[in-house]
Amino acid sequence: MENSMNHLQDIPFTPLAYMAMAVLLLPLLSFVVLAILPQRWKRPAIALGILFSAINVLLGSYLFSQIWEAEAVHARTQWFSLSLLDKEGPTFTAGILLGNLSVLMVMVVTVVAFLVHLFSLAYMASDKGIKRYYAFLGLFTFAMLGIVLSDNLMLIFCFWELVGLSSYLLIGFWYQKDTAVAAGKKAFLANRIGDLGFLMGLMIFWAYFGTLDLEVLHAFQKEGNWPTGELWLTVAGIGIFFGAVGKSAQFPLQVWLPDAMEGPTPVSALIHAATMVAAGVFLLARVFLLLEVDVLTFIAYTGAITAFMGAIAALYQQDIKKVLAFSTISQLGYMVMGMGVGAYGASLFHLLTHAAFKACLFLSAGAIIHVLHGLEKKLGEDGIYIDPQDMRSMGGLRRYLPTVFITYILSAFALIGLPLFSGFLSKDALLTGAALWGMEQGGAAYLVPLLAFITVALTAYYMGRQLLLVFFGTSRMAPDSDKVAAVWQQSQPLPWTMKLPLWVLALGSTAFVFSLNPVDATHSWVLQGLYATLNSANPLSIGYKQQMSIVAQGHHYHTFISLISVGLAIIGLYLSYRRYGAKKNPSKGQLVEGERAAPFLAKLSLNNWYLDTIYDKVFVRTVLFKSKTLQNFEVRVLDRFIDIFAVSQVVLAHAVSIFDRWVVDGGVNVTAYAVGLVGKWSRSIQGGKVQSYFLWVLMGVVLIVLFFLF
Amino acid sequence: MIPIEHFVLLSAALLCIGLLIVIIKKNAIVVLMGIELILNASNINLVAFARYDPSIQGQLFTLFVIIVAAAEAAVALAIVVRVYSYFKSSDLDRIKELKG
Amino acid sequence: MELYLFYVFAALALVSALVIIFTKNVLYAAFALVLTLLCIAAVYVYAMAPFIAVIQIIVYIGGVLVLMIFGMMLTNRLSNKSLLTEHHYIPQGLVLTTALFVLIYKALSGVNFSGLSWMKEGFAPAEDNIQQIGVYLMSDYILPFEVAAVLLLSALIGALVLSQRKERYP
Amino acid sequence: MKHIDIESLGLKLERILTYGQYILPEFLLVSGILVALLLALLPAEKNRYLSSAIVLLVLVAVAVLYGFQWVDTYRTGVKSLLGMLRLHTAAVTLKLLFTLTTAAVVLLSLRLSSLRQYVGEYLVLLLTALLGAVLMVMSSNLLMTYLSIEMVSIASYALTGFAFTKKSAEGGLKYILFGAVASGLMLYGMSLHYGLTGSLELGFRAVSEGELLLSFGSILMLGGFLFKLAAVPFHVWAPDVYEAAPTPVTAFFSIVPKIAGMAVLVTYTRIFLEVDMLLLSGQETVRTLLATLAILSLLLGNFSAIWQSDPKRLLAYSGIAHSGFLLAGIAAFSHLGIKSLLFYAVIYAIMNLAAFALLHWAEYRYGIRRIEDFKGLSQKAPFGSLLLLVVMVALTGLPPTAGFTAKLFVFMSLWDAYGQTGESILLWLLVFALVNTLIALFYYLKIPYFVYFKPMKDNGQAQEKPLSSLHMAVMVLVLFLLMLFFKPEWLMDFFNNASFVF
């Protein structure tokens, strides 16, 4: 089989394929234009950027209308080839694959990107770097669309890297803040670790099949040429999944996402709700039919564990964005779990609904932060200090920001999964899949649906808590209510560029958009369209079998499962009402006090399961300790034996300078550090004395001769 | 005729002595002397082997090596003089500003 | 007789090379090097390469060594003290060079040179091959010859620039 | 007096004269050296632009001749000149690359302060180094290899001192001492080779006796080539010399001698592989040796680069790591491997040229000598910063730059070679190379990190000129980098079906 498919024929570009190219390249054009135009033309440049993204929505919609439930379009051209003298070498192709899956994602990306473009206009208005910001948005959109539209894994990997880079730029956008820079680095690194797995998976696929073209790989699977039960293919599947783990913030690499909230809030809506984090799930969907059974099981467990951990971590956060960040981790866990249990359609459906309601939540939070940020200065003049992101200083906002209140509550209900909202439909489908899978596998597999159901209640609890703390009760901003009212008098009303995106996304959080029957998604157009993408699969594929069994049996359990999930959600809401409800209306002081004496669970939650601490301890502290003892050693002993221990002195001096560096910039990355330690040693060869160089060289020669000749 | 092994052994010994000089002597010019010894060790080999070669390639090679050695020595001494004017020393131990 | 004379010269070359190691006086080292190179020239004669021996004496002893002694004078403040140099890295250097010698010796000891295929042709060169060398230099070796010329030229230029005393633009 | 066969001598001379046409470009280069020498007589201060322009003209003419030669060799295949040099497509490609690089370096050097005094001498040495490198890639004879390596080396030693500072003098001294020892060891290896095979020409005869000694000689010889390539364990000189030399000269060092060293290594590796001289104790082969050295170079170069604070030093270590990649390509010795090596060499040259040009620009315009000084450069010089970012991304080997493609080709040829020979060391090398691209991120992105994410130190300095000529030139290079990512076959097509002997 090896190298049999090296020579892929070109597939000519149709008008639709050219249009898809246009959709892909327009954001890049926007990036280039914004990067090149000088600072003094920033207004027209930004207008141009927004215009481009609006055009992109129109083009995307047209593509969607033409492709959805119609024939898929594939166009391909030779990218480069390596031909050898005696035989034809491998050929790399590049192309566009337009199917139901990709056009759906195109819609999500272009619409959310456009709304974020619009929303940012007011949000970033006072920022000096606004032109750079819009340029990065364009670059990011381009990369994301590239992932969605590519027809082979190699190309996907290239765009995948570009997404990593551009998100790094966006998260670290406020480079004046050290925390933002550190967060950007962290995101980048976590992603790189995942990418290494991805790359390994690609290489194994290449080694087996000599191609990375998705259609060709699927053809192998369809024609039954797919070797099953091969260890290396399992490794490849896990490797690719690791790529998804990095991008979609799954356990154990989820630590980067909460920190990434350092970026501007509209960016969080784009990157951390709708697009980049969804790329992992999208990748899993792309290779869904190619995954081995062990890989799927592994995915299911990872997803369920992440969903649960994320929900726990969201319970006691005080930062309005942090709650949403952990909630995103938790919901992504759902989607990944869905892929693992074979609920392919439901998982993607949840991706779609989540994109809408989570983007709405982030943008609403952004609107709140924007307004409070404006007030922060005015209050500061009166000696009152607030943190515009801290929920403990909010409360009663429903009176002052009615629009945001309504959109927030609509999208929060969708997230909780109450009937009539989009989240209900997709979560229900996911839970059904998980429950069926658990029953089929039996034994420990029940853990997966169990965790998924518990997470429903937890989700309701933390969202209820957030709604109550932010919008209900009375304001905790200032000591007396007159003062608060006076301050609010001076606040600017929200511009329409902010309101419009909120309304659009809030509308997208209702169930009617996706299904005529608001309590049952089985016949919704989205799910039907997504199932259609599996039609050509080989019935022997594990994923296909599982999905079909869900389709066949799901409706037997549907009513039962939806009742349980709604019941759990209501319990969660009730519990949060008990603790934070209007009657109690805890004051700022009480909230601060309550968390200081927090029980174990709250501490665990606040610290995100102590993951950062653990990583810190395991990778960093051990090294730190060593440097410290070495330093003592230097002080006491070295003065006397400075000549004798000339060599060790070099090492020690390096260790001490590492220590300084470490303490001074505390945010240096763990891995970078460990790597750096080795680097310190290896450059100590370079002591400066030329004759020590001779020694090294001679040693090298003698060693080589000894190893290779004797 | 003198056996070829003798020549090769002599050259090996000279090579190692040259290397030892290069490593342990601090003075830059003495180090250069060591380098000349290394080159001469190779030359002995080349000349000795050329004895059996009708086209005496080894002898010609040696000729070129001697030319190159002279050129190299000229440049090296120029550099040593220049270094001396900055460091006021030709002690290689003290010439170690570039490192790391 | 020939063999014994060879031994004498070889031993003298080695001993004077060792003197370079042991002496601290740079000037002594230079004179020891003169002796070594002279002995090596003698060894060339025994290897049937008189022309090379002459070149060795002219270029090395007449050129390179004089250059070195000049260098010594230029780079050491001439005071009452004689020019001394110190040693370092002695243990490491000794271990490594000895190891290298032992390895070469081991590799050498297994070789029976007279069994080499190309040597079996049993060629004995003429005592006097200056003419042959000249012809080769101008025919087969014309390319290296020209290359060496360019190399010498640019080496001289480089040495010239670098030994300039002062520069206006530091 | 031995009788001399006049008739055969006449034939020989006639042949030499006919071969003259094949080294016409080199003749032109030599005359360029002489012209530059004459130019040194003019007052340098006033005539440095004139001199540079004349030398540039010569270089362009040489490049054009190489272009013709390329077409010629493409048609006729390999040609041997007097058993000393060999002419083939791969060599001509590299010669062209060297010539163009040198031309760029001449342009880059215009701002060098020492040029005000020594422009002619500088150009002589630069052209000599170029001539040596050109001969290196063509040489097919131990003597020629030795001479050409020494030619590059001696010119380089002198060039290192051209900054006329304390540092550059020190760097020059270290370079010449280290280089002389390395070439001495190489020469010793060559003498053993000659003794055991009785020939200086390539295509060594197999020996019946003393394989061990022959392998010993081969390893010592490799040492000299590794010195030019700046690979472990003969890499130690590189950081000091790169830091000491004037930046344009460093750019030259990081490209021309290194790639020439690669070419020589490839030439000899072929012989080693054919005769299998290093096949001695069990399964150890020349591949194992090269792969081991590649792994070590990758690790050492990348790890040491992490804490560097001098940008030139950082690039020196990165160059050592790149040598590891080149060695990896050599270890995967195949047609695909050679082609990917050539591709890598071209891309490496472009990347390094761009990187050093930008460093040089930052140095003379903003006085930036350390990596910390790059703080906030993006505010002063947005366009230059953007170029710097792309170049660093390319050096790291990330898409969408040809740096990625070049690494990919090397990986592929390694994988291919592993499939054919089944030597597990190649797989290890592949794994190490992959991991090292990850490590490389830490230091390459350090410069863009300072450029973009750290606030400026002071606002005193002038704004960037919108588009200087240097930026335009670097932009062309960067465009090449991007273009060759999307269309690598534009370059690869040149290498396909060409005659490769090496």
Sequence stretches where pLDDT stays below 50 over 5 or more residues of chain B:
none
Rg of Cα set of chain C? 21 Å
At the fourth level of CATH, the homologous superfamily of the domain at 2-119 in chain C is NADH-ubiquinone/plastoquinone oxidoreductase chain 6, subunit NuoJ
Q: State the separation between the terminal residues of chain C, measured CA to CA.
A: 62 Å
CATH topology of chain B: Helix Hairpins
Write down how many β-strands of chain C occur, each being a DSSP E stretch of 2 or more residues: 0
The sequence of SSEs of chain B as H and E is HHH
Q: What structural category arises from helix and sheet content of chain C?
A: mainly alpha
- The average pLDDT score of chain C comes to 84
| Overall helicity of chain C | 55-70%
User: What sort of overall outline of chain C do the alpha carbons produce when their principal axes are compared?
Assistant: globular
Please state roughly what percent of the residues of chain B sit in beta strands, choosing from under 5%, 5-15%, 15-25%, 25-35%, 35-45% or over 45%: under 5%
For the biggest sheet of chain B, the summary is: none
Q: Figure out the total of helices of chain B.
A: 3
CATH arch. level architecture of chain B: Orthogonal Bundle
Distance between the termini of chain B: 53 Å
Portion in strands of chain C:
under 5%
